[in-house]
Amino acid sequence: MKFTCKQQDLSRGLSVVSHAVSSRSTLPILANVLLSAEQGRLKLAATNLEIGINCWVEAQIDEEGTTTVPARLFTELVNSLPQGSVQVTAQPDTHVVNLQCLGLGINTNVKGMDPSEFPLIPTAEGGEPPILLEAPLLKEMISQVAFAAAKDESRPVFTGVLVQVREEKVTFVAADAFRLATRTAPLPGATEPREDILIPARTLTELARILPNEGPVEMIVTPNHRQVLFHTEQIDLVSRLLDGTFPNYRAIIPLEYKTRAVLETKALTERVKAAALFARNSSNITRLKISPQGANGSETGTVTIEATAEDLGDTTSTLNAAVDGEEIQIIFNVDYLVDVLNVLDAPEVALEVTSPMRPGVLRPVDATEYTYVIMPMHTNRS
Amino acid sequence: MRRSFCYDNKTMTVTALEAAAHGWGIIGHEHALERLRRALASQQVRHAYLFTGPDQIGKTLLAQRFAQALLCMGGPDPRQAPVNPCQRCLACRKVLHGNHPDVHVVARPPDKQFILIDQIRALQSEAARHALEGRYKIFLILGAHEMNSQAANCLLKTLEEPEPGVVLLLTAPERGLLLPTILSRVQHIPLHLLSTAQIRQALENYWEVEPAEAELIAALASGRMGWAVRAVEDEQLLVERREQLELLARLPGQGRAERFAVAQRLSGEPERLRQLLELWLLWWRDVLLMASGGQDLIVNVDMRELLQRQTALLGAAGARHMIYAILRTLEALDQNVNPRAALEVLMLDLPLLSRV
C-alpha cells in the first residue's frame, strides 16, 4: 500500500475515527485504525464493537492496499507533523507502516497488525432504502432527545432512542423513569411504515459530534436488523441496535391540561438555573406556582419559581406569563427542567399541568413538534 | 496467563504438532479432548464447561482451542462447528490472537484480589446481545475460583438461563474451590498431570529439544506441559532455578548470620517467595525419595550429587522435618505473617551441617 495525502486531512480523519477507538478493550486489534487505500481515496476505520466509524480522506493512491496502525500513537504522530504532504507506505507481509514527510527529513516506522483480523464494519449496501435527513436537523433532534435517555444500564431499552417512521414523519423518543422527550420531523415521501428501531443514546450523541454541519445524512438499517448505518459523503457511522421493545410512550403523554402558562424561554431558563443553585442541596426540589391573571391581585398571569435549601437559603422568582386555567402548584426536579431548557431555542415555551400529582408537559411555542413530559415530585410537606 | 497461549512461538514445530493432534495442538489430555470432540461431532455443545487442574497444565489453552473449534469456519459445513479447529481460517487466527469479537476473556484484574461483580455484569450485558461474527458467543472465565461470592452468585443467573449461543468456559485449579451452585450447572472436565515420558517425547518431537535437556525439563515440569514449554522458550527460567536451588542447597552448611542475610534478601521479593519455597519443597521431596530408595522418581536430576550428600547427612527424618517446616512457612505467609519473620523461623528450623 502506498499513498500521499495532506497532513491536515489525515489528522482530521483520524480525529473523527478516534471517537470509535475504545480505550479499554480486550481485543488488541481494536486499539488500531484501519487504513485502506482504495479507488482514489483513503479510508480510515475504527470500531469498539458498539459503534464503528469510517472516514474517507482525499489522497493520491499510488498502490492500493490495507493495513492497521495503533490509533493513539499514529494520531499523535500525525498531529505532531508540520503541515504538508505525508507519504505512507505499508509492507503487506510485516505490517510495518512507514511514514515520511517529503523533503523534511522525517521518516517514521510504526508496527501495525494484520488487517484481515480487523472487524468488518458494514457498508450501506443491501439494506432497506435509506431515510434521508439533513445534518443540522438530525443534530438538533439528537440534542433535544438523547439527553432524556437513562444513563444506568439496569433497563437497557431506556438507554436507547426510539426511532419511528410513520406517515411521512420521523419521531425520536427517549425516556427514563421520570421524563420523556419526543421530537417529530417531517419526512416527505416516507409513506411506507418502517420497523421501529432502538439506537443507543450514546451512539447518537457521538454521531452528533462528528456529523458535518450541512449536507444530507442517510440512515440505513442493515439487512439483519442488528445495526444502523448513518452515511454521509465523508463519514459513515455504524451502531449496534438495542434489542427489546420500547413501551408505548404515547400513553404517557397527557392529552389535556387544566392550566397552561406561556413563558419567555430565556427568562425561564435563567430563573430555573438560579433556583437550581439552591435546589441541588435539597433533592433538586423546585416549586412552581402558576397563577392566572387577577389572582393575588396581579395584572398578568405569573409563574413563581421557588427553591429552598436548609443550610444555604432560598430563592423566589416571579415571571410574567400568559396563563390559561386555574391556579396550581407543582414540584419538579430542577435538573430535568434545566436539561430541556438548554436544548430549546424557541423564543417561548408552554408549560401544561393538570394536577400536582400528574405529569406536566413542556413544549416550545413554534412550529417544532416537540414534547417533553416530566413527572412531578412529591414531598410530605404541603 | 498469556504465556500459556504461546505453544506456537515456534511455528514450524507447531504445524507438526497440530497435524499430529488434529489441529488442537495439545499434548496429552486425551480424555478431555475426546469429550469435547464428541460434543462437537454430535452438535451437543453445552452452555458451560469447567476445566480443572493444576497451574500451567493447559486449561486455558484447551479452552481457547475449544473456542476456536466452536467458531472455526474451515470445516466442511460452514454453518456447523467442525470437530477440530483448522488453525488456518480467519476465525481461528482471530481467536488465537485474542482478536475475535465474540470471544471475551474475564480474569482477575492484576491490581484486584477478586474477579468482581462488575466484570460479571459486563459479561451478562454482552451475553444478551447477538454474536457479531461467529455462531457462538464465548466467555472464558480464567481462574473462576477468584470470583468473589457476589460475582459468583451473579454468574449463576447466566449459568441457569443462558441466552442461546452463549458458551461459558471456566478454568480453576480444583472443583472444590467453586460454589456448589456453580458446579451443578457446568460440565466438569478434569485435566490431569501429564507423565514425564509424555512431556519428554513432546519436547523432543515438536520443540526439537536435545534429549538430555528434554529429560531434565520433563522431570522439572512435574507433569505441567505449560511449564515445560516456558522453560524451553525462556532459557532464563532454568538458569534462575539452578541459581535459586544452589543458594538454598548451600544453606544447611552456613551459620545464622548468613542465613538471616538470605532471609532478609528473599523477603524483599514477596511475590517470588512462594515459588521459591515450592522449589525448595521439591528439593526435600527428592531427599526423602533418595533416602527411601525412590531414586527414579526424583525431579532435580541435574543436581543428583548434592542431593546424595544431603541425603547421607540428614536422612529421611531430616527431610520430613524440613518439609513440614516449609509447609508451615507457606501457611504462615498465606495468613499474612511478615515474610521476613516467617523466613527467619524457617532458617532456624534448618539443621546445621558442618560440611555440605
Describe this structure in words.
The complex is a heterodimer of chains A (382) and B (356). Chain A is an alpha+beta fold and 382 residues long. Chain A contains six helices and 25 strands. Chain A has helices at residues 7-17, 71-80, 135-145, 201-210, 265-279, 334-343, and strands at 2-6, 32-38, 41-47, 51-58, 60-63, 65-70, 85-90, 96-101, 106-111, 131-134, 160-166, 169-175, 179-186, 197-200, 216-221, 227-231, 235-240, 259-264, 285-291, 301-309, 313-325, 328-333, 348-353, 360-364, 369-374. In chain A, strand 23 (348-353) and strand 24 (360-364) form a beta hairpin. Chain A is elongated, with a radius of gyration of 26 Å. Helices cover 54% and strands 7% of the residues of chain B. Chain B has helices at residues 11-20, 30-41, 59-71, 90-96, 117-127, 149-160, 180-183, 196-206, 211-221, 225-233, 235-250, 256-267, 270-291, 304-334, 339-349, and strands spanning 48-52, 103-106, 137-141, 166-172, 187-190. Chain A binds chain B through residues 26-29, 49, 113-114, 116-117, 119-120, 153, 156, 226, 240, 243, and chain B through 90, 93-94, 97-101, 104-105, 125, 128-130, 132-133.
List keywords for this structure.
heterodimer; A: alpha+beta; DNA Polymerase III, Chain A, domain 2; 25 strands; elongated; B: 356 residues; alpha/beta; 5-stranded parallel beta sheet; 15 helices; disordered N terminus; DNA-directed DNA polymerase activity (chain A); transferase (chain A); DNA-directed DNA polymerase (chain A); DNA binding (chain A); DNA_polIII_beta_cen (chain A)
Write the SSE topology.
The complex is a heterodimer of chains A (382) and B (356).
Chain A: E1 2-6, H1 7-17, E2 32-38, E3 41-47, E4 51-58, E5 60-63, E6 65-70, H2 71-80, E7 85-90, E8 96-101, E9 106-111, E10 131-134, H3 135-145, E11 160-166, E12 169-175, E13 179-186, E14 197-200, H4 201-210, E15 216-221, E16 227-231, E17 235-240, E18 259-264, H5 265-279, E19 285-291, E20 301-309, E21 313-325, E22 328-333, H6 334-343, E23 348-353, E24 360-364, E25 369-374
Antiparallel strand pairs in A: 1-5, 1-7, 2-3, 2-6, 3-4, 4-17, 7-8, 8-9, 10-15, 11-12, 11-14, 12-13, 13-25, 15-16, 16-17, 18-21, 18-23, 19-20, 19-22, 20-21, 23-24, 24-25
Chain B: H1 11-20, H2 30-41, E1 48-52, H3 59-71, H4 90-96, E2 103-106, H5 117-127, E3 137-141, H6 149-160, E4 166-172, H7 180-183, E5 187-190, H8 196-206, H9 211-221, H10 225-233, H11 235-250, H12 256-267, H13 270-291, H14 304-334, H15 339-349
Parallel strand pairs in B: 1-4, 1-5, 2-3, 3-4
